[in-house]
Amino acid sequence: MKIRLDNISMRFGDFYAIKNISLSIARGEYLTILGPSGCGKTTLIKVISGIWQPTEGKVFVDERDVTDVPIEDRDTGYVFQNIALFPNMTIKENVGYSPRVRNMPEEEIDQIAKDHLELVKMFDRAGMLPSELSGGEQQKVAIARALASGSKMLMLDEPFSALDARVRVELRYEIRRLVKKLGITVLHVTHDQEEAMSVSDRIILMRAGGIQEIGTPLDMYRNPKSIFAAYFIGETNLMECTVLDKTKAGRTVLRLRGGRTVRASKSSFYSGDPVVISVRPENVYTANDGLEAKVIGIVFMGTYWRIRTLAETSDYIDYNISANDEVPQIGDEVRLVFNKKATKVFERPEEGLEEAIKLE
Amino acid sequence: MSLFKWINNVSNNERPRKAWFSFVCLIFIVLIIIPSIFVVLKMFTEWDIVSGVLGDPEKTSLIWGALWNSFSIAAIVTVVDIVIGIPMAWILVRKQFRGKKYLDTLMDMPLVFPTGALGFSVVLFWGAPNGIDIPGLGMVLSPYIMLILLHIIFTYPYMVRSLSAILEQIEPNYETAAMTLSASRFTAVRTITLPLFRAGLVTGTILCFARSLSETGGTYAALLLMNANGIFFTGPTFIKHMKEIQDPTAMGSMILISVLMIVFALILLVVVKLLIMRFKIPIKKVWPHLGRKLSRGAVPKLKDAFSIAFLAIIVLLPTFYIFTYLTQPMADIDFVALMSAIGTSFAVAGVAVVFGIVFGIPIALYIARKRDTKLGKILDNLVNVPLIIPTTALGFSLGLFWSTIYAGGSLNLLMVVLGHMAFTFPLVVRNISGAVEEVDQSYEEVAMTLGAKPFQTFTKVLMPIIQSSVIAGAILAFTRSLGETGATLAIDRSANTVPVYIINLLDAGKHSEAAFCSIILIAICFVFMLVLRLVVSRGGRHT
To answer: Looking at this predicted complex, what is its ipTM?
Structure first.
């Protein structure tokens, strides 16, 4: 189903949980909503699914205004963070609940429950009670229950946050495969960026009740449009500097604190503009020449080394080394250069860099 | 402080802990359980006089009539409480609105009133021609209906409280989840929340039933004012009546009716528990359209309005109606007698509550933490016994027990205290064990890993957490003791507690004096509660 939000706001007293959100979601699209806690992620899907009525704005599904349609007639699957399987019913009764409350004939209820349990490979547990299943299994049943309503829209409210890391990874691909097969439009709230990156068609990055940025995972990673997006999605080194000049090819030449110059990607800034550059650790290399820096920390990240340095510009600059390579010692002097294509230039925020990347 | 240290060190050893717990259990059995059901034993040893009563059809029909009245009134009252209590619990737990705090406080008001005063007030309110007289109807209520109206008032808070406690624990997301699956709210509640309600329903039902069955003071006052005394009996008023008449066979009648009430009450406890636990709300069939109609628009609003109206008209107005006496000239009150009665009542209630806390906490802890052990289960069930047994029967039994052991008559007040200890004990234990069950045991474990000894862990970690429940239990027990008439009269007819004093005034036809005494008592209770809450909340802030 196609979803469109028109200037949605949700106010609790004087506090806007979400404010002036407009958004268009295509049929069958898998969207994740990412953002720090308290940014309004869950509020947004609760408003879309009809659990809450927005205080302002309209929700359209397939271009029909459903803002005032009560939740039970919205036909939106919703999977809760705390799973919320009905404890007084068996797994099968849970999955068959939606067809039952629509008063379908008994055989049909049975068939739907069976099909959906098979879909999530849980049919062998049909007669058990929710409390007899593990967390991952319960969540699979909760998804089957939401799908069994026949809804073409599914809201996932941090469904995996209570699960084991490995179960979480398996389950997320499983779900993506399933919903793509069924052509269901999904809005998936998460605070796990890896999860968002790996399953979504597009990511909505929210902050303080508003949408900060929308884009495909790769685009958002490579070409974030704001400092906040660069900082929140993936990891990055941020450095305050000033535009010196532009090269003939259009690249920006910048002066870092302390006077050293670097080159970055193309930008629309002019000489003298105060800016911030963002360069991800994997785009920082050691060389014979470049920024002077001193190694102050070394951490093995599981598949690579993360080296933290204090540069001559007084910035902390992190870079990565392959797990197989030789690691420097703490206190070693290194020279750093940046991949200039991957060095992004942003306007220096008036409120200060700290404020611009604050999570709340 | 050194005593604290000493206890603390001693608590580190298993043996003294066990010894203390065994002692508590012994006290519980000897002081509370055995005297409560002693009358059953007495029936067998005194079978001659009991069989004499059984052979007299006139007496047996009186006894059966009283029992029928008691049990049928209790049953009707409980059903009404359930039907009206569920929507009210919903309002209190799930709805947010201004003034909710006041509604919450008003709910408990009938518990502060001595039941004798309540009975008086209710008759004044409903009983034509003094109270509300619906013009043209010439409505004169039968004693039976009047007692139902009266009993609803003081059982209603118990039902609403039990149901709210459970509702608070039921995840509200269940209903939301059901609604995203196309169930109307009506269907969601019926198929999910109500089936999860059972535990609360059992507690509420038992509390209401037992309370209605036990009630003596209010019932007697109401019957007296309706001139139905001596004609219309409930179990407890029958015992009171028998105590008063000089009849050699009265003993037999009292033993018989006490035993029957105890036995029926216990059977009922088991039956109700089984029935509610076995009974399944049919969830296979749904009516989507009807459900939607019932969930939207006027129906839920009407339901809420009806719940509030019921609370106001059936519960609160009759309760407070006695205050209309304030518009009349002050009666001539014997202040010395009243104050001495109030003093006695407060002393009895105070001792009972302190006993309940000291000896109730170990038992409550055991029940909460070791529910799965055999002893835990036994204690859990035993604690309910004095709660279920009608207090008049309990008092009668207790009086028999102690007078069998000690023949002298001068210890009557002590026996009254023992009686009040017995029926308030379960209230304290239930409240505390409920609270302890909610507390994650890891807090105490953490304290122990940090080097705290068991007693220290209890006083510094667990106690501050459950403090409010301990106080709630204590207040409940205190008010319950303060208002109790039946047990006191059954133990010692000349006991000088306030409810008895008020009943005696009514007996003597001094209505105005009784009303003013009640009002003074209510005011004192109210101020006392207020001060207690204030002191407690302040103490809590300092530590």
So the answer is: 0.84
Which of A76, A86, A146 is facing B174, going by the closest CB pair? A86
Count, residues in chain B? 543
Please check whether residue A49 touches B, CB under 8 A: yes
Q: Does A94 touch chain B (CB under 8 A)?
A: no
pLDDT tens digits, one per residue of B23-52:
999 989 888 888 888 888 888 888 888 888
Of residues B174, B183, B191, nearest to A72 (C-beta) = B183
Asked whether residue A78 falls in the same domain as residue A203, the answer is yes
- A71 contacts B288? CB cut-off 8 A: no
Question: Is A203 found in the same domain as A303?
Answer: no
- Do residues A327 and A298 make contact, with C-beta atoms less than 8 angstroms apart? yes
Q: Are residues A159 and A256 in the same domain?
A: no
> What pLDDT, on a 0 to 100 scale, did the predictor assign at position A247?
86
Q: Are A87 and A129 in contact (CB under 8 A)?
A: yes
Query: CB distance B195–A88 less than 8 Å?
Result: yes
Owning domain of residue A92: 3-228
Answer whether B182 sits within 8 Å of A100, measured CB to CB: no
Q: Which of the listed residues A171, A203, A228 is the one where a domain comes to its end? A: A228
Is 80 exceeded by the pLDDT of residue B289?
no
Q: With an 8 Å Cβ cutoff, are A78 and B177 in contact?
A: yes
| Chain A to chain B Cβ contacts (< 8 Å) | 77
* One domain for residues A183 and A319: no
Contacts with B466 (C-beta within 8 Å, 6 or more apart), sequence order: B432, B435, B436, B439
Across chain A, what does the average pLDDT equal?
90
Domain tally for chain A?
Answer: 2
Our CA angle for B148, B389, B226, nearest 5°, is 30
A194 and A244 housed in the same domain = no
Nearest Cα neighbor of A154 from A132, A180, A173, A129 is A180
Between B174, B182, B288, which is nearest A84 by CB? B174
Q: How far is B107 from chain A (nearest CA, A)?
A: 28
Strand partners, A279: A237
Nearest by CB to A88, which of B177, B192, B291?
B192
| Chain A residues whose beta carbon lies within 8 Å of the beta carbon of residue B185 | 72
In terms of domains, do A164 and A263 share one?
no
Tens digit of pLDDT for each residue in B421-432? Answer: 999 999 888 888
Indicate whether A341 and A211 sit together in one domain: no
* Euclidean distance between CA atoms A92 and B380, whole angstroms: 35
What angle separates helix A135-147 from helix A106-119, to the nearest 10 degrees? 130
Instruction: Identify the structural domains of chain B with CATH numbers, from first to last.
Output: 46-328 (1.10.3720.10)
pTM score > 0.90 for this model? no
Q: Is the pLDDT of residue B368 over 80?
A: yes
With an 8 Å Cβ cutoff, is A288 touching chain B? Answer: no
Half-sphere exposure (Cβ direction) of B481: Cα atoms closer than 13 Å: 33
Q: Which of B265, B241, B251 shows the shortest CA–CA distance to B42?
A: B251
pLDDT level of residue B77 (50, 70, 90 thresholds): very high
B195–chain A nearest CA distance, Å: 7
Q: Do A151 and A190 reside in the same domain of the chain? A: yes
